[in-house]
TrEMBL record:
Coiled coil: none annotated. It comes from Lederbergia ruris. It holds the Pfam family DCC1-like. The gene is yuxK. It comes from the Bacteria. The chain crosses the membrane at residues 84-104. The lineage of its organism: Bacteria, Bacillati, Bacillota, Bacilli, Bacillales. This is Thiol-disulfide oxidoreductase DCC.
Amino acid sequence: MGAIILFDGECNLCNSSVQFIIKHDPLAYFRFSSIQGAEGKKLLAQYGEADDLNSVILIEKGKLYRKSTAVLRICRHLTGFWKLVYFLIVVPVPIRNLFYNFIANHRYKWFGKKQACMLPSPEIQRRFL
């Protein structure tokens, strides 16, 4: 059983990150949903979470992870040296999230914003909820 990643479907950085994860996840461990979509909202409600477009959310083995913790846990399952990034989990969450929040708060300015959620290609459509 895999994990689910909830992401901001209007964020160019977030959409590029999803494409990157798909490329480095040949075992298709991850499935995806935008936070703005019906399935994303349903999952957030199920876990008692508010819509937070400034956080990537990972649901893995019945637990919900946010921000830098989600990113590091995602990296742990990717191919290549990305697995090694997980060692940063030893850095205290408040310090990690300082960096995460800085990028999250500037991502639209730096990377832009889409007018609508991305539409996955037919070959990866099955990985989206």
